[in-house]
Amino acid sequence: MGLILDTSFLVFAEREARRGVPGRADASLAQRPSDTFFITFTVAGELACGQSANVRGDWERLFRPYPVLPWTSEIAWRYGEIYRALALKGQLIGANDMWIAATALAHGFGLVTSDLGEFRSVPGLLVEGF
Known about the structure:
Mean pLDDT: 93
Radius of gyration: 14 Å
Helix content: 40-55%
Number of domains: 1
Number of helices: 7
CATH topology: Rossmann fold
CATH superfamily: 5'-nuclease
Oligomer: single chain
Low-confidence stretches: none
Order of helices and strands: EHHEHHEHHEHE
Strand order of the largest sheet: 3-2-1-4-5
Number of strands: 5
């Protein structure tokens, strides 16, 4: 199964790597040996904003193990669907999170995140915690 790793996952993984002690992120990956992991163009952008990746080489190292899914017109359409559905319920989430969710839906992938509440409001999105 294809799974998108949210920024929160990669931040946890980076912290674990710096401590040199396996933790929640490592355990989550180990429990899914047959899954394929990806990140979105939005996650790559969020990582570029962080202090631990303010040097391009450090930024690239953070996501190098995971293919980056680019923007497509299908993702843009899914974004609009998510926006309309959540706005109708008065439950809009952050724009970046809607792009991440739209990418997952467009590819038929699930999402691994620590932000369960926010993403679980997106209709049809398979959300897994870690």
